[in-house]
Amino acid sequence: MDSGARATSSGVAEFGYQQEFSRTLRRFSSFAIGFSFISITTGIFTTYGSVLISSGPLGIWTWPLVIVGQLMVALIFGALASRIPLAGYSYQWMSRLANPQIGWLMGWFVFAFLVVDAVAVDYALASTVLPALFTYTGTVGNTWLATAAIVLLQALLIALSTVWVRRINNTAVGTEIVGIGGLTILLLVVGAIIGHLHWGHLFSSAAVSRAGYFGLGRVNHDSPWILAFLLGAFTIVGFEACGNLAEETDSPEKTVPRAMWTSVALSGVIGFVFLIAITVASGNLHTLAASSTPVADIVTGILGGAVGKLFLVFVTFSIFACGMVIFVTCTRVTWAMARDQRFPGWSVLRRVDKRKNTPLVATAVVGVLIEAVLAVFAHQTSALFQLFSAATLMPALIYFFTVVLYLTRRRQLPAGHGFQLGRWEVLIVVVAVVWLLFELSIFRDASFATPWLYVVVMTAIGLIYFGWMLATHHRLDMPTAETLEQAVAGGDL
């Protein structure tokens, strides 16, 4: 073992763990995880139609503000990941900087978010892209069936090998950039040639009234401008996924923080240019707002059926990879909590298949739970809106509590060697807190009742198991280097 590998492995032992995964992820692969989880393709194809309805195309101008706020959060997460580079990210950070009880609750909350986010992304693929690609009319029934099939395929790929997941994910970065970049250029060029660019759409609210458009709304009702923030807030999340695979990453204290903030910055720039392109290339705004596949309609309308569908193949691959990365992240959170004996069925969920280098049982269990949540949401006619709303609310809560933890306990963090905020720390934290408080205020709107219900139900389920652990005097202390030495000496490992 070379000196670099020894240093990295000892970093895991410092926190009381043995190295169980192979460190196969390098700088690009780590970046690819964050970039693919964010997936501007997924976010824009999923939420653009809702923004047209609630805010009109003028709503896309909220995107740069979201990028600034999420970039600040990514920098703070990078500072935490560089000092505690362990699978489970917020679960580990909260457990070690606050206490294991709060850490467990955060871990369960992260798990609940990742499950519904995987459903949201795969459902978006089945409802907003596949009908246009294969020319059929999407219904509640066939969308449910297609989503279930996508989840099953992802589970099989994850179970086969981490290597295959990495290859698909790395390729998805290329399809994301080529697909979105190519679409942006072609939409603008072809649209200009055929005289189908409408630059005035960038500042149009379409059928949405301008009265009170930029206001704050009411106690239980958001203004159109406020609702438009969902476009970026749903899309620019998941950059922390590369931190969840820190134990599979080479030199994670340097690689992971860089992957986090660069994935946010690049996604922000490319995504905003694409938003401008599809907005100016849009035709009848009222017709698009009524469509379940508005972005796909714009693409095929400007580029024609053959070329448009070719790019939709790239889009399909990118969104599929996004869902798969979320799935993988969920299995790693489950595994991390099972490793500490703090997840139902932990004794089997903690096992790592040495030949395939993946937690097979955790993958299977997470897959079944994703299918179960899909079954709950899929029968609703507004399933896509409810799913992406839940998948926006939950990370906002996770980010807020994690940033507050950093603010209150940053002096207790281990020494950093790979990434530090330096003299910009106070400004970064202040901007992040202001942004997250504003983002959470969006969810006061009455239309978000179902996402809040999902949060309450999943939290209640977690609290029942948490209460059982306390009642049975289940140990909640976090492992340390000393406990690892004792376990090794006693033959427990």
Can you give me a brief rundown of this structure?
With 493 residues, this protein is mainly alpha-helical.
Question: On the 0-100 scale, what is the average pLDDT?
Answer: 88
Largest sheet: none
Q: From the coordinates shown, what is the CATH architecture?
A: Up-down Bundle
Q: Considering DSSP H and I runs of 4 or more, what fraction of the residues is helical? A: over 70%
Strand percent estimate: under 5%
Overall 3D form? globular
Write down how many β-strands occur, each being a DSSP E stretch of 2 or more residues.
0
Instruction: Give the distance, in angstroms, between the N- and C-terminal Cα atoms.
Output: 20 Å
Low-confidence stretches: 1-10
> Structural class, from helix and strand content?
mainly alpha
Kindly provide the name of the CATH class.
Answer: Mainly Alpha
CATH topology: Amino acid/polyamine transporter I
Number of helices: 22
Number of domains: 1
Order of helices and strands: HHHHHHHHHHHHHHHHHHHHHH
Radius of gyration: 22 Å
CATH evolutionary superfamily: Amino acid/polyamine transporter I
Describe the structure.
- The chain has 493 residues and is mainly α.
- The chain has a single domain, classed as Up-down Bundle (Amino acid/polyamine transporter I), CATH 1.20.1740.
- 70% of the residues lie in helices and 0% in strands.
- The chain is built from 22 helices and no strands.
- Helix 6 packs antiparallel against helix 21 (449-471).
- The longest helix has 35 residues, at 305-339.
- The radius of gyration is 22 Å and the shape is globular.
- The two termini are 20 Å apart.
